[in-house]
Design a protein that fits this description.
With 191 residues, this protein is mainly α. It is 70% helix and 0% strand. It contains ten helices and no strands. The protein has helices at 2-7, 10-17, 27-47, 52-80, 85-90, 94-105, 112-115, 127-142, 147-170, 183-190. The protein is globular. The two termini are 22 Å apart.
């Protein structure tokens, strides 16, 4: 958790940026996703559950309320605060805040490169919820198969995403660094 916090603090990233380097702190996100994948696999195997509906319902009821409050705060602030360059970084004008908020609520905030999701610092960390939900959907669909086949399927998916990302990076396509690919880290945690 501390690595993820450090990744968002200028004081801990500036020394690396001064030398043109990326701070190593984002490894905390990768570790978090891997651990989350492992926990989900452990809990579902312990419960012996192959039922998709309860699995997804539990996760959505855990995520959506906090997500909705975050989006509502951003939307209200964007309507009430005076707009200037400083405020707009955090709480953009209402149309931009609305678009950014809906991308979070409908779980496509991590696809920013492809669907032109506007940026609002107040919603910055919520892209990770979109990645998390995509993993939950994939994993829920795999709950109907045997645990062994599930692990193989997740391994193949992780390898395919990683290969696709490497290919895009080699061709110089920056969206290959998009957060959508972090689903592979959840998959590796399960395996």
């Amino acid at each position: 958790v501390l690595f993820t916090v450090f990744a968002h603090l200028p004081a801990t990233t500036a020394p690396f940026a001064a030398f043109g380097l990326r701070a190593p702190w984002l490894i905390g996100v990768a570790v978090f996703y891997g651990i989350s994948g492992w926990i989900i696999a452990h809990v579902t195997s312990r419960n012996g559950s192959g039922d998709i509906a309860p699995f997804l319902t539990k996760r959505l009821f855990r995520l959506v309320p906090v997500l909705a409050v975050s989006v509502m705060v951003t939307l209200v602030a964007s309507m009430l605060l005076p707009h200037n360059p400083v405020v707009d970084q955090f709480y953009p004008p209402p149309p931009v805040a609305w678009h950014a908020g809906m991308s979070c609520l409908f779980f496509f905030a991590d696809l920013g490169y492809w669907v032109s999701v506007p940026y609002a610092y107040s919603l910055e960390g919520l892209w990770s919820v979109s990645v998390e939900v995509k993993f939950y959907v994939v994993y829920a669909l795999l709950l109907i198969v045997s645990p062994r086949l599930r692990s193989v399927s997740l391994g193949v998916l992780a390898a395919a995403i990683l290969a696709f990302r490497c290919d895009l990076v080699q061709r110089g396509y920056m969206p290959a660094l998009s957060h959508v690919y972090f689903v592979e880290l959840f998959c590796l945690g399960v395996i």
